[in-house]
Amino acid sequence: MQLRDTLKMAIVGLTTHKVRTILTILGIVIGITAITIVTSLGNSAEGYILGELENFGGNSAFVVPGKEGDFSEGSILTDSLHEDDVEAISKKSNVPDAKEVVPFVFGPATLIFESEDKYVSLLGASPGNKDIENLELSDGVFIEDEDVDQKAAVIVLGSKVKEDLFGQSDALGQKIKIKEKLYRVVGILEPKGQTLFVNYDETAIVPYTTAQQYILGYNYIQRIFVTTDKPENLAGMVLDIERTIRDSHNIDDPDKDDFYVQTAEDAAATFGTITSVLTILLASIAAISLVVGGVGIMNIMLVSVTERTREIGLRKALGGKNKDILLQFLVEAVILTGIGGVLGIIGGSTISFVATKIIHQVSGINFPFSSPLSGAILGVGVSTVIGFIFGIYPARQASKKSPMEALRYE
Question: Is 121 helix (H, G, I), strand (E, B) or coil?
Answer without folding.
Answer: strand
